[in-house]
Amino acid sequence: MWVTIAAGIGTIATAIVAIISLVYIAKQARAVREQVEQIREQAQGMREQTEVVREQAKTNRAYEYIRRFNDPTMRIVKAEAVGFLKNTSISEERKWAVLLGGEGNPNNIDLQSKVMLILNFFEELAIMYNRNLVHREIIESFFRKISLRYYEYATRYVSERRVRMNHPMLYGEWQEMNINLRKT
């Protein structure tokens, strides 16, 4: 009989230990769930903060392009390069011979460099725009008319360069950006 009572007490004790263990495990599980929820909230906050930082970087880059475009040195380059590209008093054949190196005049290197600087500026800007790495609305607001007009001035030169270099996509990013700018 004592053996039966002892066995019963042992079973009860084991059950009590099991219940206490389950209560402890349940509390730990609740604490883990709360920690997981806190980590999720922190991760969401970090995602939101990252997005804010990305947007700020895109805005900063857009304003940097505007600053570069309006730099006093760039103004001189733009005036000479665009002035030449849109000059109607020079025959088209002579104009393109000068820019494409057909004249052999070393003075043309300065003009060629200025034209290339403008075209490369817009190609670089277009790469950033097309990949959504700059604030598109700021770029559209500031550069829409300028980019379309400059591309119009440079279209023949770009076409000739594409043929001569056997590079059909030369300034293709700029062209793609202008297609998008016409839509906005």
Provide a short characterization of the protein structure.
The protein has about 180 residues and is mainly alpha-helical. It has helices at about 1-70, 70-85, 90-100, 110-130, 135-165, 170-184.
Topology of this structure?
Blueprint: H1 2-70, H2 72-86, H3 92-99, H4 108-130, H5 136-165, H6 172-183
Helix pairs in contact: 1-5, 2-4, 4-6, 5-6
What tags apply to this protein structure?
mainly alpha, rod-shaped, single chain, 184 residues
Question: Can you walk through the features of this model?
Answer:
It contains six helices and no strands. The chain has a domain at 58-183. The mean pLDDT is 89. The protein has 184 residues and is mainly α. It starts with a helix and ends with a helix. 85% of the residues lie in helices and 0% in strands.
